[in-house]
Structure formats: structure tokens, C-alpha cells
Amino acid sequence: MSSSSSALRDLPVLLVAVVWGSSFLAVQRVAEPGTAVAMLVLRFGLVLPLLGMVAWPALRRLSRAEWLGGGALGLVLSGIFLLETYGAVHTSATNAGLIISLAMVLTPLGESVLSRTAPPRAFLAAAALAVLGVALLTGDGGLRPPSLGDLLVLGAALVRSAFVLATARVRAVRETDMLALTWVQLAVATAVFAAVAPAVGPSPWAVARSYGPGQWAWLLHLSLLCTLFAFFVQMWAVRATSPSRVSLLLGTEPLWAAVFGITIAGNRMGPLALVGGALVVVATEWGRRTAPVAAPVTAPAPVRRGETEAAESEVVESEAAGSVVAESATGVGERGPEPAPV
Known about the structure:
By secondary structure, the protein is an all-alpha fold. Helix content is 74%, strand content 0%. The chain has helices spanning 2-30, 36-60, 64-90, 93-100, 103-115, 121-139, 148-169, 178-200, 204-210, 213-240, 243-250, 253-263, 271-290, 305-317. Helix 4 runs parallel beside helix 7. Residues 294-337 have low confidence and may be disordered.
């Protein structure tokens, strides 16, 4: 009975990893280079009212410093989603899902730099293995350089890691309700997308009118499952199961990205690229298990148990990370929780 109950608690978290793995394919179905920003406006414009209704009581209690801190993190979050989305439309869904998982290795490396502590040798070996895997994956075993999309997704992984590290160090938001903080970050990111959209392509309304039933289905999948569903499952899971189990299950995301990319999108990978993809998966899991655990930058004020667990869920999920759901949609990925993948 205990084993059965544990499996039932793990299932929703595994479903989050599955829908996140499908997010890169979903983006390719609803966005092109000229419509990527407009799509982001629609994606999060659908989520904000629903999330806002739940977060309203907590939003009313936010201080000016918390609004400003959440807004600053929202600007970073917008950069993550822009990089991930443009990257996803310029590379394969398989590559995007595997490369973004490097954030799980990059974040502990950044933490070691900031804390001025040397990471374990095993972790450095995992990081080196991950770099080798990406080289084989993006070059498909050849000598050609990575594509523009590969580089954009790699940039998103770097910014996602920085986002997670910054979230842990912004004093104004350390004790902020995660639901309210996530809404603020998403609202700011959406405002950025809305301001940028007219300069880079058609308006969100024009894009919405051009969508057929299939594209609307993919957009709702991104909004309701990859963002809203993923966020609430993370908040629930960190209380219903252990952070380690949540981290392990969410770590299967790149595997699902490869499954969707190969079976649905028809991505083709040569033998050495397959080896590279496998190395990335192995290296990120190895890095997750051997990552150094740094002490807090400063001792935070005492918080209630629920707030502590919510903060733990953010660090665990980060690998993305990071806000929405992230990630705090965060995804992207981010990672509030880490941003949900795009």
C-alpha cells in the first residue's frame, strides 16, 4: 500500500516532466521567428488571469520592495523565454530539450564561483562529460559549429542558471509568497513581450486570428499544462514527497524531449549525435547527484514551514530553472519556481 501511494504521488510530477519535454515541439507548432514574441504574449496572457485569481490575496499583501524585486526577476525571466523560444524555432526539439538540461550542471558551478568553494572532482567530471555530449549532439558527430538555435538555447540555460542564483540572493523576495512572486514575474515578462511584439512581427491579436484549431490546441497545451499545471504540481509535490524524488523525476525532461522530437517531429540523429545526447542525460544526472551544496549567502529570517518548503521546491526544480512556472513558469522554466521550459 505504501509503495502504491508513493507511485501515485510521483505520477503528477512525472507528467510535468513529460509535458515539459513536449514544450519544445509545441513551440515549433505555434511559432515562427516572426511570431515568437506574439505567441509568448498569448501564452502567458491566458495564464495570468487564472493564476491571478488564486494569487490575489497574497498579491494584496506584497510590499513595494517585493513588487520591485519580483519585477526585476521578471525582466530576467523574459530574457530566458525569449532565448528558449527563438532557440526552439531554430533548432530541433530534441536538441533544445537536451541542451537546456545543462542548466542543472551550470547552476551548481555558478554557486561554487559565488561561494568561492571548489566543486567536487566528480561534479567537474560530470560537467566535462556534459560539454562533450553537447559537442557531439550539436555537431551530429562532425566538425561543423552549433546552429543558431543551439547557441540560443545554450544561452537560455546560462541565463536560467543566473536567474536561479539571483532569486536566492534577492533579499526582498526571500520570504515572499511563491504564488504571488510567480504572478509578478510572469506579468512583467508578459509586459515586456507585449512591448516588443509590434517591433518584431505581427500583433498578438493578428497571430491569434491566424491560428487554426490545431495551433490553438498546442497553445493551450503550453499555457495550461506546461505552465499552470506544472506550477501547481510542483508546489504540491514538494509537500507530498521528498525534494530529491521531485528533482529526479523532473530530471527526465530531456528524455521526453527526445522522445517527442524523434517520434512526432521526425528529428533524425546520427550515431555520434545519439551518443552525445546520451552523454548529456548521464552527465546532468551525475552532476545532480554530485553537485556541491552551498551554505546560504546570509541567514534568512525565520519563515513558516510552508514557505521553507516552497523555497526548497524552487531550488530543486532548478535544475530551470529556474520562475515560471516556471520556471517561476517557469519552463522556460522558472524555476517562484524555476521557469518552465518554453
